[in-house]
Amino acid sequence: MAGRLFLQIPGPTNLPERVQRAMDQALINHRGQEFATLTKKIMPRLKQIFRTQEGTPIIFPSSGSGAWESCLVNTLSPGDPVLAFSIGQFSGDWAKAARAHGYKVDLVELPWGSAISEDLAYEKLAADKGKTYKAVLTIHNETSTGVSTDVKAMRAALDRAKHPALLLVDTISGLASIDLRCDEWGVDVAVAGSQKGLLLPPGLGVLCVSNKALKAMESAQSPRYYFDWAPMIERNRAGIFPYTPVTQLLYGMDVALDMLLDEGLDAIFKRHHRLAEGVRRAVKAWGLSTVALKPENASNVLTAVYLPQGHDADALIALTENQLNLALGAGLGPLAGRAFRIGHLGWLNELEVLATLSGVELGMKSLGVPCTLGSGVAACQQWFLESKAG
Ligand SMILES: *Cc1c(COP(=O)(O)O)cnc(C)c1O
Predict the structure, then answer these.
(1) Which of 88, 92, 68 is nearest to 148 (CA)?
(2) Does residue 143 have its Cβ closer than 6 Å to ligand 1?
(3) What dihedral angle (degrees, nearest 10) is formed by the CA atoms of 120, 273, 276, 87?
(4) pTM summary value
(5) What's the 350 CA to ligand 1 centre distance in angstroms?
(6) pLDDT tens, 285-333?
(7) Domains and CATH numbers, the chain
(8) What is the pLDDT of residues 218-240, one digit of tens each?
(9) What is the whole-number distance in angstroms between the Cα of residue 355 and the centre of ligand 1?
C-alpha cells in the first residue's frame, strides 16, 4: 500500500527516523571500550527519565513481561504475601505471573475501566494488621482499558497505613508518556519496556530499582539467573553486561534518550495530554463511550472506545488496516469485538491524530456504525485551536 502505515496501536509506537538510523550500524565488541562508553552514556539519562537520583536503572534483553518477572523474583521469596489489583488485562496478567512464581497473591479485582483508588489501597493495607504483604503490585497505565492510576496516591496509601511493603509499579506504557517520579513518589521498582513511550522497537525490559528494593534483593529467595539484578548491576558499573546485550537497541536508546530529554519530560506530558484530549473530544462527538469509566482516570497514552452494540470492533480494525493502512489496537479479553483502542503515545503530532480520527470515521461509516463524517475530526481540530501547543 502506498504511503506510510499509521501505527496507532498502543505500542509498539512509530519509530522516529533518527532512532531507526542510529540502529543501522555495524556491531561492536560488547565487552570493549566503545561499548562501555555507550552504556555509561545511557544510564544517567535513563535515571532522568525515571526522575530518580537514588535509583538504579537496569536493562534486560526482554519484552516488558520479562521486566515484570525480574521485578518479582529479585524482591520476593516463594510464599510471600503480595497485594495486587486487577483493572484490566495487563494488571491481571502481572498478578498471574506473581501466582506462577508461588507468591501468595491477594488479588483485588475491579471492573475493567476503573482505576485503583487511594482509599481502596489504604483499606486493604490497613486491614493487614500483621503487615504481612511484602509488596503491592500496581499499574501506572492499564493499556487494555486506557486508564491511568495515580501512583503518588498509592504511595500515600502505603504511608497512611504505615505499611512497609514495596511499591512495585508497571509503567510499561506509562514511562516517558505520563508523569512518573520514582524518588518523589517512593516507587520501589518501576517496570518499563522499550517499545512504548521510550520510542524504541520491542526488545528491552527496563527497570528502575530503589535502594529499599536493592535491600529486599539481598534476602529474596526466589530462584533467578537470567533476570538476576546482582550480576547486572555489578557488570554495568564497568559498562558491560553479564551476557550478550542488544547492541542495536542500545544505539537506538542513546538517540531516543536525547530526543526525549531535548523535548523535556514536562513538554512531552503536555503534548500527550493535548493529543489525548483531542481524541476524547472526537469520541464524544461520535456519541460513543470510552472504556475508562471516569473522565479523570482517562489515560493520555491511549483511548479505548466501545462501539455501539451490534457492531464488531474487530471488523473496524480489519477494515482500517487493510484499506487505509491504519493500525488500531484490538479490544483485549472481555473487550474483544466490543472495543477498539487508539494509541496516541510516542513520537506523534496533531496531524497524525487527525488523520487517525478521520480513518476511524471512514471505517465506521463503511461498516454502518452511526456517525457523522468529520464530526470527531472537527471536535478535535476545535480543541487544537483552543489549546496551546508546546
Ligand atoms: C505492553 C504492556 C505489557 C506487556 O509488555 P510486553 O513487552 O508485551 O511483554 C505489560 N503491561 C503494560 C501496562 C503494557 O502496556
Answers:
(1) 88
(2) yes
(3) -20
(4) 0.97
(5) 25
(6) 999 999 999 999 999 999 999 999 999 999 999 999 999 999 999 999 9
(7) 6-12+264-389 (3.90.1150.10), 18-262 (3.40.640.10)
(8) 999 999 999 999 999 999 999 99
(9) 26
